[in-house]
Amino acid sequence: MSSEFANLGLSKWLVEALQAMKITQPTAIQKACIPQILQGKDCIGGAKTGSGKTIAFGAPMLTKWSEDPSGMFGVVLTPTRELAMQIAEQFTALGSSMNIRVALVVGGESIVDQAINLQRKPHFIVATPGRLAHHIMNSGEDTIGGLKRAKFLVLDEADILLTDTFGEHLATCISILPPKEKRQTLLFTATVTDQVKTLQNAPAVEGKPPLFSYEVESMDKVAIPSTLKTTYLLVPEQVKEAYLYQILTNATYNESSAIIFVNRTITAEVLRRTLKQLDVRVASLHSQMPQQERTNSLHRFRANAARVLIATDVASRGLDIPAVQLVINYDISSNPDTFIHRAGRTARAGRSGESICFVAPRDVSRIQAIEERINKKMEEFKDVHDTAVIRKALNKVTVAKRESLMSMEKENFGERRRRHEKKSDLHKSYRSN
């Protein structure tokens, strides 16, 4: 049975597994990277979200593993729990005919259960750096000893993992793995940042084939698809919720699936509660939610049980979310690349979509930076007018928001994070003494 995937050098069983999942045509990043990884090269792959990066690194790793199915074979690190869960699901599905064992090591789940799973020597570990670092620092040799023999390390969404936020945990994770000359290191990213470029230009590792680096052509030249309509709306900060509600219930958008991106978890929670009070089918996704709730929110949105998903940037990357018609940047990020990732949730695979930016006075320079980055001027959004907002939405939205804030205060929303930050500060001062 000849197929394009077989021609790339993948095992017969894996080609059959891909076909069973209706994956028959390799994407550009898969065609470029799979043969090189199979030849033993380290690899840096740059391609947009939705271009098949997981199979680009997963398929060659699974092929190599099936030739010698030993203990812990590969570690995949990624910035968010949801992305880790998605990758673990894909590995499990692809390797199901070969009895593959995949351990998911993320926050919000039982540390004890994870330690037991790690002791069973899974073939692949998919983890967020913080939780894996916790096991490395606190669990015994039985739990983490297998990591010392791993053949592969993957950094998925590498541009995020290489920022200061993850620096300390990432260093802890890498410290227990074999040295770089004895493992293959695969970096995949949707944005080739300066940190990624530094690694691209690093000197060759002695005794290893040269690093293979590949960016899907014109990745940056076409930062956003031509089918994406980009608009902005000037909004006074104190009435943003009313404008949002007016757009979501406007005749043009009242059936549309939408993701609303915010910069802070508290904003996400206030908006979710406010819109819910106003009978909008809404779910949210942010770091202060228990893991089970985060998973449920994603399932509800994917199944269209919720029409609107309010999210921090936990949802801007990599997640397999079906057709979204509208993305609203309720808060503007200071990083123009974040706009590209957020907007990338709509107008996928040739479909049309729309991105609306709420622009408060302090956001003007951020919008100019985004326009420069995407090489396109945004049009002004004209479907909702101030008079309609004041007449139809302002009063009831204000009441709903007030009730939401009161219920959050009653429930001590954010208390868990405050305790965690306090504990973290104590831990840091203890270590520095």
TrEMBL record:
GO terms for molecular function: ATP binding; hydrolase activity; RNA binding; RNA helicase activity. Residues 422-433 have a biased composition (Basic and acidic residues). Keywords: ATP-binding, Helicase, Hydrolase, Nucleotide-binding, Nucleus, Ribosome biogenesis, RNA-binding, rRNA processing. It catalyses: ATP + H2O = ADP + phosphate + H(+). Residues 34-210 form the Helicase ATP-binding domain. It is found in: Nucleus. Residues 243-389 form the Helicase C-terminal domain. GO terms for cellular component: cytosol; nucleus. InterPro entries: DEAD/DEAH_box_helicase_dom, DEAD_box_RNA_helicase, Helicase_ATP-bd, Helicase_C-like, P-loop_NTPase, RNA_helicase_DEAD_Q_motif. GO terms for biological process: rRNA processing. A motif (Q motif) lies at residues 3-31. PROSITE patterns: HELICASE_ATP_BIND_1, HELICASE_CTER, Q_MOTIF. Its EC number is 3.6.4.13. Pfam families: DEAD, Helicase_C. This is RNA helicase. It comes from Lachancea quebecensis.
